[in-house]
Specification:
222 residues; alpha+beta; Alpha-Beta Plaits; DNA polymerase, domain 1; 4-stranded antiparallel beta sheet; two-stranded antiparallel sheet; 6 strands; 23% strand
């Protein structure tokens, strides 16, 4: 069974409970078309990286679902494209690493700071409760996929700040441990992208990413 997720942004000025009704209608459509809903993430109102339809924020929703072939996806995307309530959407097929990442995130192992397993029994040396350090989503960096993100996180680079402080050669050395396929990756722009993310300069980061493919400048010679 294949697993997908569709993330969409709903117009924030919809009256009453209309935003939730819009999201629910797509859960229903997916179910009616044979998909099995795995999880619905109501991320709420968030600031947009750049204005859309003269709006600077939107209501974010993400539906994770399973389907044998994903045959219903074109129908769902067409409905969203015609729906004036939907500002943007993106459908992604998840590999096993992304599926595991989402499971860990739902279980509180990734994302916001959580108490460590033994924090109820033992505090840190300064007397404060021990908490797990929050991780940034490195896959927002152009060129970094779930597998590369896992390699970086395993090596201790789990935040934008840490990635921005690493040199391309250091990053390549970490990636090389993932096998031959990773040795050809070019992380030259990753620290600069990560610095923009660390500074919260999302519009500048998106503008930079539009000029990149796989982390490299479009048209750049091998």
């Amino acid at each position: 069974m294949r697993q997908y997720e569709i993330t969409f942004i709903i117009d924030p000025v919809l009256p009453g409970d209309e935003a939730n009704k819009a999201a629910k209608s797509y859960e229903t459509l997916l179910s009616e078309e044979g998909a099995s809903i795995v999880n619905v993430d109501n991320m709420g109102l968030k600031q947009l990286a750049y204005p859309i339809n003269k709006k600077n924020s939107g209501v974010y929703k993400c539906i994770e679902f399973q389907s044998e072939h994903g045959a219903m996806i074109p129908k769902v995307e067409l409905a969203m494209r015609r729906d004036e309530r939907i500002m943007r959407f993106l459908t992604v097929k998840l590999d096993k690493y992304a599926v595991k990442y989402n499971e860990d995130k739902r279980n509180g192992l990734i994302g916001s700071a959580k108490k460590s397993k033994d924090s109820d029994k033992k505090d840190s040396k300064d007397g404060k409760p021990a908490y797990r350090v929050a991780k940034d989503d490195l896959t927002l960096i152009e060129g970094v996929g779930p597998k590369a993100s896992k390699l970086l996180t395993t090596a201790g680079i789990n935040t934008y700040a840490k990635l921005s402080g690493a040199t391309p050669s250091e990053i390549k050395e970490i990636l090389s441990k993932g096998g031959p396929a990773f040795k050809t990756m070019d992380p030259g722009t990753w620290p600069d992208q990560a610095q923009l993310a660390a500074d919260g300069k999302w519009s500048q980061l998106n503008a930079m990413k539009e000029k990149l493919v796989g982390g490299k400048a479009i048209g750049e010679e091998e």
